[in-house]
Design goal:
By secondary structure, this protein is an alpha/beta fold. The chain has 15 helices and 8 strands.
């Protein structure tokens, strides 16, 4: 069995909460247990399914067969337990530092409002699909605030994600952003966007690689969660990135002017939305893009074409990890939704994006196998699509 990267190898910045030796060891145990579930227990589930001798037609039939199976139940229990352990450990380490983290963020964000790089809107009505769910067992979800100017849950997410993935997203937890940058650089080296918008940026893990790839572009990172934006803006500044704009807005209806953007993207956000919101994400991307612009959305693979067992195993997050829209998203025909949003059928595509090469000057560039994402996107017609603003 391969070894995950130890938590000690996480990318360091001023906003990162600092664990004790025991907490760091516990996070390393979480990483090893997750890898054990993937490399040892998941193959046992497949062997148990094959012993059933039944060719299921879909994941629902697989579920009826496998949910009582002890191999599957062991794998599922361990996955849930590691997420609970992650939240327990990181909630404690962040909790005792929350005032210190709050003060650090305030100092780093001190002139963000006047500079226009941090714009928060306390009157924003946060969509229920965001605020009503403890995503990944994160207490209160992405938007919860436990004190004024809080950054606690964002710090929790930053520190805990590395352990869950065993360093698989790189030291800066930004493999999806690097994959997007790598795809653009490899396939369209002449593409040079002047304005880039990240819809649902979270704390900006996957936003900052676009700054590395396009140093002269204006980059606007949009999210509804004020704690994520406070933390993300402060984190970016601590890493020397002072010009990415973090704005609190609903990604389905931003204040950015129509036809003013060259690249509109999301990374692992669509599964956090809802049936009603998803088409609005695509319509907003269509509204924002100027002629010749690109929208691209990175996600886990669609269930279309996957074997029923793999669909069932991937569906675990939708059933047991507080991801209520997970299953519905991955059986949705996203190219059809892009067409319904106004993009021409011949300009819509599906692709695969791989975080193959590091575009950062970081000490670690060998974090396991290169992660890959399903990508779905569209180009805005060079002559201009019919846009319903």
């Amino acid at each position: 069995m391969t070894n995950p990267k130890p938590w000690q190898d996480i990318g360091r910045h001023a906003m990162l909460p600092q664990p004790t030796l025991d907490e760091r060891a516990h996070l390393d145990v979480v990483a090893h247990l997750n890898l054990f579930a993937t490399e040892r227990l998941a193959p046992a589930v497949q062997r148990a399914y094959e012993r059933q001798g039944v060719a299921a037609n879909d994941r629902h039939e697989v579920r009826r067969l496998m949910e009582p199976n002890p191999d599957y139940r062991t794998w599922s229990l361990l996955r849930r337990n590691t997420m609970e352990q992650r939240q327990h450990v990181v909630r404690n380490l962040v909790g005792r530092q929350r005032i210190e983290l709050q003060e650090k963020a305030r100092e780093l964000n001190r002139d963000g409002e006047s500079a226009g790089t941090l714009r928060l809107n306390p009157k924003l009505q946060v969509p229920r699909y965001v605020c009503a769910v403890d995503q990944h067992l994160l207490r209160g979800g992405y938007t919860a605030e436990w004190l004024q100017d809080d950054v606690s849950n964002a710090a929790n997410y930053d520190a805990g994600m590395f352990a869950t993935l065993g360093g698989g997203a790189g030291p800066w937890n930004n493999a999806a952003g690097r994959a997007l940058a790598n795809w653009l650089r490899s396939n369209f080296p002449a593409f040079s966007p002047a304005r880039i918008v990240d819809l649902g940026c979270g704390l900006g893990h996957n936003t900052l690689p676009l700054r590395q790839c396009f140093p002269h572009a204006e980059i606007i990172a949009i999210d509804v969660a004020a704690p994520m934006l406070r933390y993300g803006h402060a984190r970016a500044r601590s890493l020397g990135v002072t010009d990415v704009k973090f704005w609190q807005q609903d990604a389905v209806q931003t204040s950015i002017e129509s036809h003013s953007c060259d690249l509109v993207f999301t990374t692992m956000v669509l599964h956090e939305t809802s049936k009603e919101a998803l088409p609005r994400f695509f319509r907003e991307a269509h509204r924002l893009l100027r002629a010749g612009g690109l929208t691209l959305h990175l996600e886990q693979p669609t269930y279309r074409g996957l074997p029923p067992l793999e669909q069932f195993m991937r569906d675990w997050d939708g059933k047991h990890n507080n991801e209520p829209f997970w299953s519905a998203l991955h059986e949705t025909n996203l190219p059809q939704l892009l067409q319904a949003a106004g993009f021409h059928e011949e300009h819509i595509f599906e692709t695969r994006c791989v975080a193959q090469d590091s575009i950062e000057d970081v000490p670690h560039e060998d974090f396991g196998r290169a992660p890959a994402w399903y990508g779905v996107g569209a180009w805005q017609a060079a002559t201009g699509d019919a846009v319903n603003d």
